[in-house]
Design brief:
By secondary structure, the chain is mainly β. The protein is built from one helix and nine strands.
Length: 139
Amino acid sequence: MAQTLFSGGCLCGAVQYEISGEASHFYHCHCSRCRKATGTGHASNMLVASDRVVWRKGEGRVRRYKVPEAERFASVFCSECGSPLPRVVPEIGAVVIPAGSLDAEPEIRPQARIFWVSRVGWSCETGDLPVFAEYPPNR
C-alpha cells in the first residue's frame, strides 16, 4: 500500500489534523468500549501505520481519556464539541483514525466487523463483511 495523507477534523472545526502513513486495516468494532465512546452500535476505525498526528489547528482543544484497566484503549476527542479524533497507539505502531472524522472518503473499505460477540441486538447486521469474535487473525 502506498503512503497517503489523511486529513480530517472535528464537528465544530476547532481541531484539524493530518496523518501520513499506510492504511492497513478498516474495521467496524462492536466492543463495549467503542460503543460507549461513540454512543453508537459500533466504531468505524482505520489503522494507519504512523507514529504521529500533525495537529493543523486546535491542538490545545484535544483531550485524551485513558481507560485505566485497558491495555491500549483510550478516547481522544475535541474539548469543544466532543467529536472523536485520531489517537496514536505506540504499542502497535499505528494511529487509530475514527473514519467519520476524515475530510474525504478513503480508498480503503471496511474489511471486517470485530468483537462481534459484544454486539448489541439493535446494531446493524453483517452485510457482506466477515465477523470475528475479537481481533481477526494476522491483524
